[in-house]
Design goal:
Blueprint (H helix, E strand, L loop, with lengths): L3 E6 L4 H11 L3 E6 L7 H16 L5 E5 L3 H12 L3 E6 L18 H13 L2 E4 L2 H10 L29 E8 L2 H6 L2 H10 L5 E6 L1 H10 L4 E4 L4 H9 L1 E6 L8 H8 L3 E5 L2 H7 L6 E2 L4 H12 L3 H11 L5 H13 L2
Parallel strand pairs: 1-2, 1-3, 3-4, 4-5, 6-7, 6-9, 7-8, 9-10, 10-11
Length: 337
């Protein structure tokens, strides 16, 4: 039997839209996009949200919210008031607390109150990785464990390709507007590696605003800085690249890494967080610390990797993050008592 699901989001990222598609295949979905994310507009947005939720929640079987932040509080309160199941996807930033980088929902006073209240009220919390679950229990509350279950993000690749012998580009993806985010995502280390290998070509995709300006002023000559691309453009860029790097000091999951693997890019990542979970059981893909010499050694190996080796990595990684698996696990939550 299909369920009526109220889907609440404040971002429109590809992984959130993917959940919309998955849920809409078997359920009746109403989507509320909280788009007033800054300044005083948030207050007016919350007032509007209250009345919309007051109308829609009684008509729904379940409230499904992406991220535990300010936009999750009213749906959580009203969802429980109307005795509905309230599911919150813990995406990473909401479980994080890195005050030195001003990173994490909890670093803002309003965010701290929001994440505390919404996670306490939710009936189910679904972190996107084990690393994110551990951060949630450490930074928010260990008492949340009883209603927490890890369900990985997913990616189904329609364009598997591993045999382009002309690939040479070394790529990292970092959607960032702040310089602090570049450090969290390890882009500063990526630049160090690029400087140490001037004969190779490197690219950073996704920075904008102050992050883009900072990189343009500090980058070496062999590093290209590319502003955010559409999803189709990013896929085409990945298909032309040989290696995708993920050197994040804090990474909840790393969807770009999965997309790169699906596109035939050899993955090189820092053995920490969600990156380590994605690349577990693969060979010659992880560096134990952010050390330039270790990264250079891995990159040289990856440049010599053939199509057969890349297909082995794809077979080891991609089936663990299929959308059919995520859909099955979400179904268990939706129909549970």
């Amino acid at each position: 039997m299909e369920k009526r699901i109220l889907f609440v989001k404040h971002l429109n990222s590809s992984f959130i839209r993917r959940d919309e598609v998955l849920l809409a295949q078997h359920h009746r979905l109403k989507v509320f996009h909280f788009s007033q994310n800054k300044g005083w507009r948030v207050v007016f947005g919350l007032v509007r949200q209250f009345f919309v939720m007051l109308w829609l929640i009684p008509q729904s079987h379940l409230v499904y919210i992406w991220f535990a932040d300010f936009h999750a509080v009213i749906p959580s309160i009203l969802g429980r008031a109307f005795r509905r199941k309230v599911v919150i996807i813990i995406g990473g930033v909401d479980a994080s607390y890195l005050p030195e980088y001003r990173y994490g929902t909890k670093t803002r006073l309003f965010g701290k109150l929001s994440v505390k209240l919404s996670t306490r009220l939710a009936t189910h919390l679904l972190p996107v990785s084990i690393f994110t679950k551990n951060a949630l229990l450490t930074n928010i509350s260990p008492q949340l464990e009883t209603k927490t279950r890890v369900i990985y993000n997913c990616f189904d690749a329609p364009f598997l390709s591993a045999d382009n012998e002309y690939r040479r580009e070394i790529l990292t993806v970092c959607l960032a507007s702040r310089v602090n985010t570049l450090y969290i995502k390890g882009v500063d280390f990526f630049i160090e590696v690029a400087r140490a290998l001037p004969e190779l070509s490197f690219s950073v995709v996704g920075p904008h605003g102050e992050a883009y300006n900072f990189l343009m002023q500090t980058k070496p000559d062999n590093l290209n800085v590319i502003k955010p691309l559409s999803h189709d453009e990013l896929q085409q860029t990945l298909l032309r690249s040989k290696i995708i790097c993920q050197f994040s000091r804090h990474e909840a999951f790393g969807l770009a890494l999965l997309e790169g693997i699906a596109s035939g890019c050899f993955p090189i990542g820092y053995d920490f967080g969600g990156t380590a979970e994605i690349l577990q059981h693969t060979q010659n893909t992880l560096i134990s610390k952010l050390d330039v010499e270790e990264a250079k050694s891995r990159l040289r190996f990856a440049l010599s990797a053939d199509a057969e080796m890349m297909k082995t990595i794809q077979n080891q990684v991609l089936p663990r993050f299929s959308c059919a698996l995520r859909q099955q696990q979400l179904r268990q939550i939706i129909y549970s008592d």
